[in-house]
């Protein structure tokens, strides 16, 4: 069973609908016991980084998520949920994240001649071979964000060029992030959710 973490700042209902459409067993929950015992976790997110961290703290879910990551539970962060996986964000001041992937979240520069927020369909370029990124190369997915992740190349599976290279799929062993919304990205996005389900089912976290 994959638990979609419910904390009132994520696009949880649409993620659940996508999982249901794919017939992937899932539950929407903020219960620490359910989350701790899940075979995989999805952390959605829409809105501001600091507000999301506070919502997780109020529900006492940060140590639960960190412990799940430590024991090897596959975790997928979506959009803001992906950004929460990193060390810190500088959105409205500095806020600590979950620290599951090294890196930080910074604003998309406004002097690049592109509109901020980055909103709409944009193409992905796969930078590393990985089952999670299969099928995404040169394919477009749906983005909505004003901040992006800066991290080391070894953690980046795919990126999008928006005047600056924006990591669109990241991975650190069992911890995965998608900056775009797979649940809003048609067949390509659904394939990404299905690939995560296969990772959970197979218990194979290798990157080849």
TrEMBL record:
- Give its E.C. classification number: 4.3.2.10, 3.5.1.2
User: Where is the catalytic site?
Assistant: 79 (nucleophile), 181, 183
Pathway stated in the Swiss-Prot or TrEMBL entry: Amino-acid biosynthesis; L-histidine biosynthesis; L-histidine from 5-phospho-alpha-D-ribose 1-diphosphate: step 5/9
Q: Where in the cell is it found?
A: Cytoplasm
| Annotated catalysed reactions | L-glutamine + H2O = L-glutamate + NH4(+); 5-[(5-phospho-1-deoxy-D-ribulos-1-ylimino)methylamino]-1-(5-phospho-beta-D-ribosyl)imidazole-4-carboxamide + L-glutamine = D-erythro-1-(imidazol-4-yl)glycerol 3-phosphate + 5-amino-1-(5-phospho-beta-D-ribosyl)imidazole-4-carboxamide + L-glutamate + H(+)
Q: What Gene Ontology cellular-component terms does the record carry?
A: cytoplasm
Sorted alphabetically, the Gene Ontology BP terms of this entry are: L-histidine biosynthetic process
Drop me one GO molecular function for this one: imidazoleglycerol-phosphate synthase activity
For this protein, the record's Gene3D superfamilies field holds: 3.40.50.880
Its keywords, alphabetically, are: Amino-acid biosynthesis, Cytoplasm, Glutamine amidotransferase, Histidine biosynthesis, Hydrolase, Lyase, Transferase
Q: Which residues form the Glutamine amidotransferase domain?
A: 35-187
A Pfam family matched in the record: GATase
Role according to the record: IGPS catalyzes the conversion of PRFAR and glutamine to IGP, AICAR and glutamate. The HisH subunit catalyzes the hydrolysis of glutamine to glutamate and ammonia as part of the synthesis of IGP and AICAR. The resulting ammonia molecule is channeled to the active site of HisF.
Q: Which HAMAP family has this protein been placed in?
A: HisH (MF_00278)
Report quaternary structure and partners.
Heterodimer of HisH and HisF.
What is the protein's given name? Imidazole glycerol phosphate synthase subunit HisH
Give the gene that encodes this protein. Answer: hisH
């Amino acid at each position: 069973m994959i638990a979609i973490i419910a904390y009132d700042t994520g696009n949880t209902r649409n993620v659940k609908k996508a999982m249901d459409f794919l017939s992937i067993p899932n539950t929407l929950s903020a219960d620490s016991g359910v989350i701790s015992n899940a075979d995989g976790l999805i952390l959605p997110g829409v809105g501001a980084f600091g507000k999301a961290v506070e919502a997780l703290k109020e529900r006492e879910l940060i140590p639960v998520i960190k412990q799940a990551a430590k024991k090897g539970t596959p975790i997928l962060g979506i959009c803001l949920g992906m950004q929460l996986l990193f060390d810190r964000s500088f959105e409205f001041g500095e806020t600590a994240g979950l620290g599951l992937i090294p890196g930080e979240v910074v604003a998309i520069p406004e002097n690049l001649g592109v509109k901020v927020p980055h909103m709409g369909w944009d193409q992905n370029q796969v930078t590393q071979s990985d089952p999670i990124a299969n099928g995404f190369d040169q394919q477009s997915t749906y983005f909505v964000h004003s901040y992006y992740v800066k991290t080391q190349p070894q953690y980046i599976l795919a990126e999008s060029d928006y005047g600056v290279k924006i990591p669109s799929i990241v991975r650190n062993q069992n911890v995965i992030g998608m900056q775009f919304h797979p649940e809003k990205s048609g067949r390509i996005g659904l394939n990404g959710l299905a690939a995560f389900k296969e990772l959970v089912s197979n218990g194979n976290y290798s990157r080849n």
